[in-house]
Amino acid sequence: MFALNFYSDIYLDVLKAHRKTVSIRLGDKTDKYRSGEIVWVTVGQRFGRRQKLFSAIIDRVDVKLIRDLSPREIQRENPAFHSAEEVAALLSRIYGEPISLDHVVSVIHFSPVEE
């Protein structure tokens, strides 16, 4: 079983409410996440304790430039976001390097699986 982990606790509430159904990750992650794969959705620090929230199925993985993200993808990444610039700023904070609208990202669409 693989995990789709979120480092920041800011996602905890929106994940629990199933309002976050997309994860935008820097780079091409098609080798790591595949459509139809079942994953645990977790929250926690890398190399630290993590909390399993629920199981999910990977619906689709798209690779594109940040500038090409749709408004729906942006909102499903973070309901408070409205622009690709906000996504780039968030990724800059997460990855600790400047991220521009021309960076390649993977858009991982997932749906919760009822157990």
Name its key features.
five-stranded mixed beta sheet; Archaeosine Trna-guanine Transglycosylase, Chain: A, domain 4; 5 strands; alpha+beta; 115 residues
The low-confidence runs, each spanning 5 or more residues with pLDDT under 50, are: none
What is the alpha-carbon Rg in Å? 13 Å
Mean pLDDT: 93
The biggest beta sheet, please?
A: 5 strands, mixed
| Secondary-structure class | alpha+beta
CATH superfamily: Hypothetical protein
Instruction: Sum up the overall morphology in one term.
Output: globular
Count of spatially separate domains = 1
CATH topology: Archaeosine Trna-guanine Transglycosylase, Chain: A, domain 4
Task: Give the number of helices.
Answer: 3
Q: What's the count of strands?
A: 5
Name given to the CATH architecture = Roll
Describe this structure in words.
There is one protein chain. The protein is of the alpha+beta class. The chain has one domain: Archaeosine Trna-guanine Transglycosylase, Chain: A, domain 4 (Roll), CATH 2.30.130. 21% of the residues lie in helices and 37% in strands. The protein has 3 helices and 5 strands, in the order βαβββααβ. The chain has helices at residues 12-16, 71-77, 84-95; strands at 2-6, 22-26, 38-44, 50-65, 104-113. Strands 1-3-4-5-2 form a 5-stranded mixed sheet. β3 (38-44) and β4 form a beta hairpin. The radius of gyration is 13 Å and the shape is globular. 21% of the residues are buried. The model has no long low-confidence stretch (mean pLDDT 93).
